[in-house]
Write a structure and sequence with these properties.
This is Oxidoreductase. The protein is α+β, with helices and mostly antiparallel strands. The protein is built from 5 helices and 5 strands. The chain has helices at 24-31, 87-94, 104-119, 137-143, 154-167, and strands at residues 2-9, 12-19, 50-53, 56-59, 72-74. Strands 2-1-5-3-4 form a 5-stranded mixed sheet, sandwiched between helices. Helix 2 (87-94) crosses helix 5. It is globular, with a radius of gyration of 16 Å.
Length: 174
């Protein structure tokens, strides 16, 4: 069965006719030509397809597009402002937080969403009960645990996120 949906992707409005069984990832990549989110595991386990959906991070391989008619999506490609990189993107470059780069768009989107969550005081599994959110390396690693890097660039990814948190005045390391 087909239907028509509207999406705003990286600031541009799209109207697209889709099969109701299509994932947001497939619509982004195959219908709209946005190859920023990557198809990794196709099971929501690697995070390569992570984008910001209405400001919150989501794995698009698990999201049916039909359920998100009218949504606002931001991919890693849409974070920059012209030639000015988003602070998380700049931190990834500065800290060499990528090797092959396949996971990088999902890592970057997840980091942007995670920093927003932390700035709102949302606890993670390793936040001590009753404590303020402090972005220690362990806290960052826990919050980013849904994004895998096949190359193992985790040390640099954590350093990049820590730097972006400081630059954004997000909760700091203790």
């Amino acid at each position: 069965m087909e239907t028509q949906i509207g999406l705003r992707v990286d600031g541009t409005r799209h109207t697209v006719r889709i099969d109701t069984r299509e994932t947001l990832l497939d619509v982004l990549r195959e219908r709209l030509g946005n190859t920023s989110p990557k198809k990794g595991c196709d099971h929501g386990q690697c995070g390569a397809c992570t984008v910001l959906l209405d400001g919150r991070r989501v794995t698009t391989c698990l999201a049916l597009a039909v359920s998100h008619d009218g949504a606002e999506l931001t991919t890693a490609a849409g974070l920059a402002s012209g030639a000015q990189l988003h602070p998380v993107q700049q931190a990834f470059v500065t800290h060499d937080a990528f090797q092959c780069g396949y996971c990088t768009p999902g890592q970057v989107c997840s980091a942007v969403g995670m920093l927003d969550e932390a700035s709102r005081g949302w606890p993670s599994a390793c936040t001590e009960p009753g404590e303020l959110v402090r972005l220690s390396d362990a806290e960052i690693a826990e919050r980013m645990s849904g994004n895998l890097c096949r190359c193992g660039a985790y040390v640099n990814i954590v350093a990049a996120i820590r730097q972006a948190a400081v630059d954004a005045d997000a909760p700091d390391t203790p």
